[in-house]
Amino acid sequence: xxxxxxxxxxxxxxxxxxxxxxxxxxxxxxxxxxxxxxxxxxxxxxxxxxxxxxxxxxxxxxxxxxxxxxxxxxxxxxxxxxxxxxxxxxxxxxxxxxxxxxxxxxxxxxxxxxxxxxxxxxxx
Length: 124
Description:
This protein has 124 residues and is mostly beta strands. It has no helices and eleven strands. Strands 2, 4, 5, 6, 9, 10 and 11 form a seven-stranded mixed beta sheet that branches. A four-stranded antiparallel beta sheet has the order 1-3-8-7, with no helix packed on it.
């Protein structure tokens, strides 16, 4: 059973920062590409960032490029999303997702496992 558990969400003022974490258990983490997605009320789930299994390659949505940083620590089976310069439009539930043997993509359908999500709220 693969489990992904996110943490680190919360309420922050515009311009502030948060760091989300996602711990993966139940499978070999080091050969799994990972992604972060988010979903705001009434909207579809959208891609935020992805990282290759080695952590060498990262990909970002245009809306977060330059503000968010995706990293991973394979020794801890954990990925992180550092979010700086937060804006009210970043408010959403953030989900991490695992793509075993993948390269890291923006497509929701490529990810086999998902966490339960963590709420991020940015006030203006």
